[in-house]
Amino acid sequence: MWRVGIARAAAAVGALLVLCAPGAASAQESAAPPAAQSLPASLPDDAQRQITNDIRLNLDDNGVLRAEESLSFGQDPPAEFVRTFSVREPYDADHSRIYEVTAISAVDGSGREVPVTTDDRGDTLDVRMDTSGRSEAVLRYTVRGAVDPVGGGTEMEWTAVGGYSRTVAETTVVVDAAVPPRALSCTAGRARSSIYCTSSDMGGHEAVRARFLQTDMEPGETLHVVAGYPAGAIGGEAIVDRDWSLQSSFAITPGTAAVFGVLLLVPVGVLIALIRIRGRDERALRTEAAAGDSTPVDASESGAGGVRFRPPDDVHPGQIGTLIDEQADVVDITATVVDLAVRGHLTIRELPHAQFSATDWRLDKCPPPDDDLLGYERMLLDALFHDAHRVKLSELGRSGLPSRLAGVREELYRDMVRLKWFANRPNLERNRWASAGIAITVLGLVLTVVLAVFTKAAFTGLAVIIAGAAVTVGAQFMPAKTRQGSVVFAHTLGFRSYLLSADAEDVPSEHRVSVFSRYLPYAIIFDNVDRWAAVLAAAGSEDAADGLPWYSGPDDWRLQDFADSIKSFALTLTGVISNTRQFRTLD
């Protein structure tokens, strides 16, 4: 628009000089002179063989241009002539101006139809005419969007020629409107040129129409014309379209904000409701936790001198670990190995080693004691020993353990459903929701990209991405404990509270080694192994046997070393299991 303002000022000065010329006061002809009268001298004689174009633009009261172009190809017409229209031009920093060119047709000098095809290139529209053997052609079309109220007036602005396929010797443009123009401007040359066209005038001394002339237009050159009219004399306004940019694509408007809110709040609200409905643990805790907050020993046989460890609901360490975090992980397997040793199914022997060498342990399988094994415990024993009766911890990673541990993990998950603690296997439930969340997130990304490229509403796509991410994160909370599972979970937390605060004096000294040994696997699950390993070592030192039936060390090993030894064993076994790749994920 800046070039239009500069050219308009120059045109206004020129028009004033024309109107004030000495001959203007005496000119009173009843009719306006023909267009050629005020144009430069005609071209040389050989111009008859050159192409000319006479463009007539009729501007109606609604601001619609009805155009008719009279093209003369001389004695040597081209087989095809391409006329280009500029249909999208810069308007301001964020918008483009759109010109709608419709109703395109062409006839030759005798009135026969000329075949026409169009090619929309986005910013330009190419009109191809079959001009073979035709010395003349008349092109007709309609233009909307060329008029716009500007300042205190109305402007008709239009790139009358967006380009020719051949050199055109002379192009004239005449604009007829219901009112005379007040100012003119025109530029010609390459796109965005600021060079004034060959000439422009207002149709003689009566100033009844706008006329423009440009000579020798090479292929690709343009002719841009502007005519100013009084305010309100002509209707219509510019058609503008917001240009694409990353900022405009994510424009926040009342409409996009409303859609964003719906797309985000509805799925996230449903997710939160599902989590609250499915996560019934807190309600069970309020009524059931106190039932598990007691000493997990059975003194019913105290008359015969018997004290027996009884975990809440007879839950084994691996089951507790899976119930608490809904995942069969490395800690559950490590605690189960220690529990099997404490219960007499295997022994753990710390092997002699040099001062700075790595410590290794040997696991020895024992004859089956009078203690029933759960399915996952039996599978774990088979995974550890396979066809052997003893194995070193350092050799487990090379003994085919990875594939065998996969079955242990699956059996632990099946145990959760068999015991009716979960309606569905928690790993599958979590995976289904996580997969759905990832799919929604990917869909949101694709939707956002599509909306950013083709619309200005990409902001709404972000809501789908956020909703998908929320479902992915919320998947960790979707495995639903049943009522029975919630009760066992509450009792388990009560047991955990006891282990974190229990005093060794609660158990008679003669039973401390056996009872505290049973505590130790659960302490591994509850991350309290340091305290109970030290308590167990102290209890063993008080025993006359000065040892543990399930754990032994080298000749120079003492029971006072047990706390450090069992921690090192648990860490090493955890590393071996982790390296199997079966327990690296959280499913």
From TrEMBL:
<feature type="transmembrane region" description="Helical">
    <location>
        <begin position="433"/>
        <end position="453"/>
    </location>
</feature>
<feature type="region of interest" description="Disordered">
    <location>
        <begin position="286"/>
        <end position="312"/>
    </location>
</feature>
<dbReference type="InterPro" id="IPR048389">
    <property type="entry name" value="YciQ-like_C"/>
</dbReference>
<keyword id="KW-0812">Transmembrane</keyword>
<dbReference type="Pfam" id="PF20990">
    <property type="entry name" value="DUF2207_C"/>
</dbReference>
<feature type="transmembrane region" description="Helical">
    <location>
        <begin position="257"/>
        <end position="277"/>
    </location>
</feature>
<keyword id="KW-0732">Signal</keyword>
<protein>
    <submittedName>
        <fullName>DUF2207 domain-containing protein</fullName>
    </submittedName>
</protein>
<feature type="domain" description="Predicted membrane protein YciQ-like C-terminal">
    <location>
        <begin position="310"/>
        <end position="534"/>
    </location>
</feature>
<feature type="signal peptide">
    <location>
        <begin position="1"/>
        <end position="27"/>
    </location>
</feature>
<feature type="transmembrane region" description="Helical">
    <location>
        <begin position="459"/>
        <end position="478"/>
    </location>
</feature>
<keyword id="KW-1133">Transmembrane helix</keyword>
<keyword id="KW-0472">Membrane</keyword>
